[in-house]
Each structure stands twice: as C-alpha cells, then as structure tokens.
Amino acid sequence: MLGLEKSITLSFNTAIYELMYGDCNLLFDEFEIENITENEILEVINKVLKNPTIQVITG
C-alpha cells in the first residue's frame, strides 16, 4: 500500500513541476532520481491505466 501511495505522490509532483516550472527534471534532481524519459513514462501509463488520456488529464 505504501508503494502505491509513493507512486501516486511522485506522479502528482511530476505533473506539478511540469506545469509550474516547465521541467519535471527539477523534481528528479531535487530527490536524486535518475532521469526518466518521456517514452518510459508513456509505456508505464499504457500498461497501468485503462483509458490513459482521460485518467491523466482528470487524475
């Protein structure tokens, strides 16, 4: 359960940094997270979400 909560928090913060600062890599640099490519994110989205476009926009 804690792992799920952490992934939700990371997703939320990634979206916030991308919207507010135009670059989510600032978040990764702050927490020393390795660089994640857009393609890797999209692969995970397509594996996990049933209707990715709607869930990402409204999530």
Outline the structure in words.
- The chain is an all-alpha fold.
- The chain has helices spanning 2-21, 25-30, 38-48, 52-58.
- Helices cover 75% and strands 0% of the residues.
Q: Compute the separation of the termini in Å.
A: 19 Å
Order of helices and strands: HHHH
User: What is the helix tally?
Assistant: 4
Question: Shape from CA axes?
Answer: globular
Summarize the amount of helix as a percent range. Answer: over 70%
Instruction: Name the average pLDDT.
Output: 75
Strand count, sense and closure of the main sheet?
none
User: Oligomerization state of this entry?
Assistant: single chain
Low-pLDDT residue intervals, each spanning 5 or more residues: none
Rg over CA atoms, rounded to whole Å, is 12 Å
Strand percentage: under 5%
Number of beta-strand segments = 0
Which structural class matches the secondary elements?
mainly alpha
Helices and strands in order:
Layout: H1 2-21, H2 25-30, H3 38-48, H4 52-58
Short key terms for the protein model shown above:
4 helices, globular, mainly alpha, single chain, 59 residues, 75% helix
In short:
The chain has 59 residues and is an all-alpha fold. Helices cover 75% and strands 0% of the residues. The protein contains four helices and no strands.
